[in-house]
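Researcher: Go.
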Amino acid sequence: MAAHCSPRGHVTINHFHFSFVHYYTGELARLQTEAEQQSFSTQREKQDLEGRLAQAERNTQLSLNSAQQSHLQQLETERRDKEQLCAELTAKCEQIEKRLRGECEDLRTSSQVELQHLQEEMRRLQQDCNAQLLQAENLKQQALSEVEVEKACLSEKLLSLHQEMEAASMETELMRRDFLSRQEQDKTLVCGLQCCLVDKLQVTDAQVEVLLRELQEAQEARDVGRKDLVQARRELRASSEERDAQRKEALELRRSLGDERREKEAVQTSNRELRGAVKRAESDNNSLKRAVEEKEQRLVVLEECKTSHHQETAKLRATLRELERSRLQARRELQELRRQVKTLEGEAAARTQELQELQARVTQEEQREEEAKREAFSLRQKLLESEAGREAALKELEDAERAGQEGLRQHDSAMQESLRRHHDETARLEGALHNAQTQVRELSLRVSLAEEQVQGLGQQLAQSEDTNRDLDQRLAGLVSALRRTLGIRQNGRSLNAGVRGRSLSPWKTRSPVKGIHSQPLRTFQKRDEPAPEGGLAVGGSPRSPSHMEEGDLDAESVRVALCNFQLELKDMQRDRVKPHTRYTHLTHLGKGGEITMEFREKRLGGLYVLFSCRDEGSVNPRLEGAQTSLSLQEEVARRAERERGRLGEEVTRLKSSLQAAGSRSDSERKRLKETCERAEARATRAELSHRSLEGELQRAQRRLADVEAEVGTLQERLATLRKETGFLPFRAEVDRLGGALARTELQEAQLKERVEVMAAQLSESSVSIGAAEEQVAQLQRTLTATEHDRRMLQVRVNLFLFYFSDPIVLHSTFKKMKGEACCRG
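Model: Structure:
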């Protein structure tokens, strides 16, 4: 069994061994084929990966080349656009220069015409002044003392004005120094910001270098991957030799392939990110270039506007200086005319009013100074607020940096709107300047018209004074006629002395009209008294020159003066009615006196007949005395009748002169009413212009705040541009933006100067308005003085008429004449 079984077992063992060997050889062959297939697949995948990497490198190179070409094309197109814009801007500049030259020529011609008009007015004023000087040469010696006093007052006034001008110049110098110091501080801030921007640019350059280093590291990693691929090939060759470790090597190869795939994906993602970054950088650069070009265009426009504004301001200042010189010359001539008028005027009761007005003006000036201080303090507070707002804007810069491209676009739109507003505001300010110039011209024309009215009223005053002199001469002739008719000698007491002293005349106790005419006699006495030293006339004193030169009246004071003037006109009309009634009463009394004279003549004739009927022998000496006395009385009566006829003619002539003077006073009153109304309308217009100029000042201050905000926005834009730009060629554009910022600051300073010029024009217009109102007040005072003189002359005429119309007075004079004749017989 054992021998029989052993060969079967051997056969089975051999069969099993053979099957096992066959199985393992098949497995080995299968494994070998699989390994060869896997090696071929890995080689194919490696070749595919290498091809893809090469294709990616080619694609990246092509994209970079295309991007560079597109960038160069954009630069060329932008350069062409810039050249076109430069050509258009040069054409616009030429057009603007032509327009400005035309406007300059127009202004020059208008200024020449105005100068010719002013020279003609100056000549006319000189001629009027010469005529008035010729008229006032007779009274010049009496007014020398007053002129000296007025010269002293005027010198004091000039000294005070010079001191005020020096103080104002000092204040303007301090304001200019403060502005220069603030401008230097702003410049230092801009320099600091530029340094910060340069530092930030350096930081961005460092970041770019870091990114380039990272790219180099990625390339090195790619080279390492290639080396790893070479090592994998070597390992695959070794795997054919080492079949036992094929699985392990296959697993390691799979792991290495997975790592390589991951690295490849990482490289692809990094390439994609780099491409996106490059595209974003290119788009940002393009947008920045466009923004910078737009800003350069805007800055060029702003520079052109600035130059045009500079030229216009220089021309306006020259014209204003010429107008101020002509106005000063006119004021000097007016002052000379006022001095001549002052020599003819005298008002003693106006001193207290002048003192009160001066005190009120001093208080008003103090209030104005306090208001000016308050305004300066408010302006300082506004400047501090603007500085605080600037600091807040600088703080907000950091927040604005975090905003993206949407914020930049919104900012660009806001910049465009602000520039449009700036252009609109400049146009509006130019219109306001033209309006202010037209207002100044209108005010100068009104001042010239007021001066002409003053000259006309001065001529009327001279005419009224001539009429007063004529009336005084006529009154002197009446007094001499009375002396001749009454037979009073020169060594005796004169009639005027008797009337002034109220001597013991026979009609003192029996006059029935004593209560009516006692007050006029007192005024007549005051009128005939000698004038005190200094040349003072009745009811007035020489006006102080400060009252004539200061012109700070308000509209309320003008209205009050107009009301007082209307009341005085009503009183004048009542006083004009009273002399007419008194004249009618005196004419009735004169008729009654004539009747009594006729009755007395008839009685004298009867007495003469009775004396002739008596005995001639017994009453011869008495008859001779009575005849001589009667003949003397008849001669005196005839002489009195002749004088009465002549006095009647004089009274009619005086009545006609009084009517003419009344008509003249009515015309003068109407003219003065018209001038007062014009002055009131001028004051209202001046108030409206003052308010409009104040509104312009407020708008200019708001515009200054807007300009400061624009400066802040420009600084923000500049900072963002310098942070976003990482290339060196854009630094020049950033420097240009810094220059634009400095130009906007200069424009802000120019706007401030224009505001100051407008404020000075406003103050000059208020001064001229005050001077016109003062002239109107002076004319009203002169009118009241002439009315007072006319009243006094009317009182004199009424007194003389009363003296010759009262029968009791005539009876007493005849009795006195009889007594003198008896004494002589």
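Model: The chain has twelve helices and no strands.
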